[in-house]
Amino acid sequence: MSTPTTPRNSNGFALQAGIAFAIALFAMLFGLWLMEGDVWIRAFLALGTVFLVSSSFTLAKVVRDTQEEQYVFARIDRARLDKLLAEHDPFQPQV
Questions:
Q1: Cα–Cα nearest to 49, from 31, 33, 29
Q2: What percent of the chain has pLDDT over 70?
Q3: Domain count of the chain?
Q4: Which one is predicted more confidently, 1 or 9?
Q5: Within 10 Å of residue 50's Cβ, how many Cβ atoms?
Q6: Alpha carbon 4 to chain centroid distance?
């Protein structure tokens, strides 16, 4: 019996995602820095940016945990089915 492997992201994909995140965050903060307006307006938008970034990380973690949980339950169900099939003897008379 072979167990399925979990697909993994390549190092290039992880690097690309990290660079894209850094560029987007830098562009937003740079835009806030150059924006004309009162300091409290820029501070409010910067705080919104920080909240958006932290909630994005939280959402990504929740999605990842949900997928891992489904994978674990699928493996448990598969193990139960394999056990039942291994114990079943089709030539034994039914009671």
A1: 29
A2: 91
A3: 1
A4: 9
A5: 12
A6: 19
**Residue among 59, 51, 49, 55 nearest 25 (CA):** 49
* DSSP secondary structure letter of residue 63: H
Three-state DSSP class for residue 33: helix
Question: Is 66 a member of any domain?
Answer: yes
What DSSP element (H or E) covers 5? none
4 in a structural domain: no
Q: Is residue 49 part of a domain?
A: yes
Residue 2 lies in a domain: no
Tell me the pLDDT band of 30, cut-offs 50, 70 and 90: very high
Supply the range of the domain harboring residue 68. Answer: 11-87
Strand extents, DSSP E, the chain: none
pLDDT one-digit tens code per residue, 46-64: 999 999 999 999 988 888 8
Locus of tokens 């994978």:
71
